[in-house]
Amino acid sequence: MNVLFTSRSTLFTQPGGDTLQVEQTAKYLRDLGHTVDIKLCGERININDYQLVHFFNIIRPADLRLNIPKQIPLVVSSIYHDYSEYDKLYRSTSSKLLYRLFGKFGLEYIKVNLRWLNGSDTFPGLKFLLSGNRKSIKALLKQSQYMFTTSHQEAELIEREIGLVPPYKKVNLGSEHISVSPSSSREGVLCAARIEGFKNQLNLIKALKDTNIPLTITGAAAANHSAYYEACQQEAGENVSFLGRVSKEELEKQFGKAKVHALISYYETTGLSTLEALKAGCNVVITDRGAQKEIFGNHAYYCEPNDIASIREAVETALAGESNHQQWVEENFSWKKAAKEISDIYQSLMKDSTT
């Protein structure tokens, strides 16, 4: 089957968890015999070259601007985030005011247009400008024949906020891409993520300040978050090391050395670095925001992202605990299995479209 994967224009220039999800899903679908092209928003696409379109990241509906004929099924991987807690608490004064005036979807609409105006993203399209963010997401879901999520919580959030959920299936992400040879002696804490307020590195640094717990932070500052990165550097004590964006091999090395991985975000769908850390033999500290408890259950230590004492307590408990999560990850999180589940849905939709 000829399949088009499409997503945001910055998928590779500003990589995130969705980048890995797109690449790995495409890889394992190709192993099943599908032809998968990855085309980004703004690229020239001949839609008639494809039998099915798969769009990633519905929180950015402006990134799908294709006129898809009715006979070509459209499916989406939702990757639906809720930024509202962070927006209300920690955005700049102007952003907080905009949130109060226009709400979650109004603020997202403004951010899309600001990214276009400052040149960091492409023109969102006239249809999006006239419809706004929420209506555009709803129209996208109405057009979609199927949706893939990584949790039931995600689908429930979409239903609550958008009022529409197409037929969907929960499909776990995979872990085959990570390969780690654990060090004979592990120590300290690793945080592997883009550096931005939403990922909450600053509170992690504060929680471990004036301790002898080594904290290693990998990842570059997210676009438009250089001031936050500088605040993290200013707050950091001698126990904190910033490595910047690192190679896959170096990241695997860091996973192998750390006793604990901490990703105390204000929201995550899965949190791929948490999954990678568990497979690498780390204990993990996360929050209960989003679908984290549904996905990781008792395989994680939990904290409150706004509570410095809670973060420190969770990290210290995790440092003292034993880690035995690798087998659970390998049995439950497989790109190969995910691709098979997705392929089965593709085949079902193609049969329906020809009857």
From TrEMBL:
SUPFAM superfamilies in UniProt: UDP-Glycosyltransferase/glycogen phosphorylase
Q: Where is the Glycosyl transferase family domain?
A: 187-332
InterPro entries assigned to the protein according to its UniProt record, in alphabetical order: Glyco_trans_1
Q: What are the protein's UniProt keywords? A: Transferase
Source domain of life: Bacteria
Q: Which Gene3D superfamilies match?
A: Glycogen Phosphorylase B (3.40.50.2000)
Q: Known Pfam families for this protein?
A: Glycos_transf_1
Which GO BP terms apply?
lipopolysaccharide biosynthetic process
**GO function terms (MF aspect):** glycosyltransferase activity
Q: State if Transferase is listed as a keyword.
A: yes
Q: Which PANTHER family match?
A: GLYCOSYLTRANSFERASE WBBK-RELATED
Record protein name field: Glycosyltransferase
Please list which residues make up the signal peptide: none
